[in-house]
């Protein structure tokens, strides 16, 4: 049986412009340049430049036009004329409602403008330069002295694979052995190890390259690859990696003891059971100490050394720059990778040409409709960039005020407990917005570059009744561990008692969690001779 029901629902949906703003907000500055280039390629109505360029071009057109320029002193005048029939030419077209993006600034009034359909197309919105200003804000970007300054970048050289293939070309190998060498080099992971079985590599060559090779042949070529630089490359485990590096050192007594430790007591070495090693190998205290010191100088990950790393070097480009001018903190937004944007003035000329030409030309009307869509897209993108900058500045400014004591001298013990809700409440935004800002952004200070997530931490109760930042507790925990006796490191229980004595009410499991977050091993693995 069919029924007819009526429901009343209330739902919220994000407009395409709001989705665009959210995506722009969460990307860092280093990715913003690529996003802007992508938009410039997709939208011909959007171009790089500022208002000064528009003024220069307008002046050139005025000089060429001569006396006719009097008719265009007011760019909106020709469209305010009641005899203008431009709106009537679009009676057969419709466009969906497109809301404007609201700017998040509390001090600026926001207005929700009604979107215009093609029936009420007002070309003055697209001819008025003041309404299509570039997104660059005052104080953004480099100063006049920094315009020509280039950021120094390290020479990354070639990749590890390319370096090894070059060395393979100089090895005295036949065609089959060289093919095996290329297969082995391609099997090296990011740490510089070959973790696959040699039999599996031989099978891959048989199926993919139709080359029959035994495990012994593959292993023979492997020894050749292991002789390449860097030392320890293409090892199958950590023990082999360290031994390969020791083989290239002068074969003195210390090297001999180190090789014996790795060959005969590797398990005890990984667990730092030094008394057992000394007893089994019959070594004196000085001999054991020198051998262990030599092993600790070796590189456990040869694939990540020097300029021949596996991948591209990732550079951190700060989104904010914070300077201290005699106690006055100055915050600027790094807009070096974001060029000035504007709407192309050529599209304004196209509207003028349409108003002067044949109004009933269907092809020209379609062109003007296309231009209107591109202009709307350009304006929305510029507004989204401006809104992104406003949101970033407001969020970071609130963080700077909240953690002012830290930014003045860089003392981690002065970091205050701060969560996303604290900043969201102060700037009047949602927690998710603050989370997007803090997730992938960083700030350059006089004490280094910090990710914004670094300044958010939970509170730990103290005997004084005030909450201390977990960053402060971690900093003190790190100082205690650095000052401990290396031959008798402190256990988590002792660390807990020492922190409690300083007034921090913290449990042992919390001490263990903070220690792991600081990448500090347990007491047994911190023991040194």
UniProtKB/TrEMBL annotation:
Residues 47-91, 117-132 have a biased composition (Acidic residues). One of its GO terms (cellular component) is DNA-directed RNA polymerase complex. Residues 369-527 form the RNA polymerase sigma factor 54 DNA-binding domain. Residues 40-154 are annotated as: Disordered. PROSITE patterns: SIGMA54_2 (PS00718), SIGMA54_3 (PS50044). InterPro entries: RNA_pol_sigma_54, RNA_pol_sigma_54_core-bd, RNA_pol_sigma_54_DNA-bd, RpoN_core-bd_sf. GO terms for molecular function: DNA binding; DNA-binding transcription activator activity; nucleotidyltransferase activity; sigma factor activity. One of its GO terms (biological process) is DNA-templated transcription initiation. Keywords: DNA-binding, DNA-directed RNA polymerase, Nucleotidyltransferase, Sigma factor, Transcription, Transcription regulation, Transferase. Gene3D superfamilies: Homeodomain-like, RNA polymerase sigma-54 factor, core-binding domain. Coiled coil: none annotated. Residues 154-347 form the RNA polymerase sigma factor 54 core-binding domain. Belongs to the sigma-54 factor family. NCBIfam families: rpoN_sigma. This is RNA polymerase, sigma 54 subunit, RpoN/SigL.
């Amino acid at each position: 049986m069919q029924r007819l029901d009526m429901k009343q629902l209330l739902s919220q949906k994000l407009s395409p412009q709001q989705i665009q703003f959210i995506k722009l907000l969460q990307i860092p500055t280093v990715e913003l340049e690529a996003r802007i280039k992508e938009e410039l390629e997709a939208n011909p109505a959007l171009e790089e430049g500022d208002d000064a360029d528009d003024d220069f071009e307008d002046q050139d057109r005025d000089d060429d036009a001569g006396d006719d320029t009097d008719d265009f002193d007011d760019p909106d005048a020709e469209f305010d004329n009641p005899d203008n029939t431009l709106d009537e030419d679009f009676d057969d077209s419709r466009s969906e409602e497109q809301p404007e993006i609201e700017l998040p600034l509390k001090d600026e009034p926001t207005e929700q403008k009604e979107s215009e359909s093609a029936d009420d197309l007002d070309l003055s919105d697209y001819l008025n330069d003041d309404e299509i200003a570039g997104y660059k804000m005052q104080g953004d970007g480099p100063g006049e002295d920094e315009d020509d300054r280039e950021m120094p970048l390290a020479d990354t050289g070639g990749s590890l694979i390319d370096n090894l293939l070059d060395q393979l070309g100089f090895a005295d190998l036949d065609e089959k052995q060289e093919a095996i060498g290329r297969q082995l080099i391609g099997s090296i992971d990011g740490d510089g190890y070959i973790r696959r079985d040699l039999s599996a590599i031989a099978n891959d060559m048989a199926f993919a390259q139709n080359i029959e090779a035994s495990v012994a042949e593959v292993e023979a070529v492997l020894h050749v690859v292991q002789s390449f630089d860097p030392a320890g490359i293409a090892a199958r485990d950590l023990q082999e990696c360290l031994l390969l590096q020791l083989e290239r050192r002068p074969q003195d007594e210390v090297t001999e003891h180190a090789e014996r430790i790795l060959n005969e007591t590797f398990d005890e070495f990984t667990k730092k059971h030094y008394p057992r090693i000394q007893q089994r190998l019959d070594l004196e205290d000085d001999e054991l100490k020198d051998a262990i010191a030599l092993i600790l100088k070796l590189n456990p990950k040869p694939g990540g050394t020097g300029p021949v790393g596996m991948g591209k070097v990732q550079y951190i480009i700060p989104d904010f720059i914070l300077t201290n001018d005699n106690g006055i903190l100055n915050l600027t937004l790094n807009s070096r990778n974001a060029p000035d944007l504007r709407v192309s003035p050529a599209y304004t000329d196209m509207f003028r040409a349409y108003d002067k030409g044949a109004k009933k030309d269907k092809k020209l009307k379609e062109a003007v409709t296309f231009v209107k869509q591109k202009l709307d897209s350009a304006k929305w993108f510029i507004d989204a960039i401006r809104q992104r900058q406003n949101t970033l500045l407001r969020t970071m400014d609130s963080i700077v005020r909240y953690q002012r004591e830290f930014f003045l001298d860089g003392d981690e013990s002065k970091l205050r407990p701060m969560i996303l809700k604290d900043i969201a409440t102060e700037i009047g935004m949602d927690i998710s917005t603050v989370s997007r800002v803090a997730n992938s952004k960083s700030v350059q200070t006089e004490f280094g570059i910090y990710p914004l997530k670094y300044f958010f931490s939970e509170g730990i109760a103290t005997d004084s009744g005030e909450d201390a930042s977990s960053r402060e507790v971690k900093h003190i925990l790190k100082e205690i561990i650095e000052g401990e006796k290396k031959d008798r490191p402190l256990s988590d229980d002792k660390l807990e008692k020492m922190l409690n004595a300083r007034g921090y009410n913290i449990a042992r499991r919390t001490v263990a969690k903070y220690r792991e977050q600081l990448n500090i091993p347990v007491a047994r693995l911190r023991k040194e001779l």
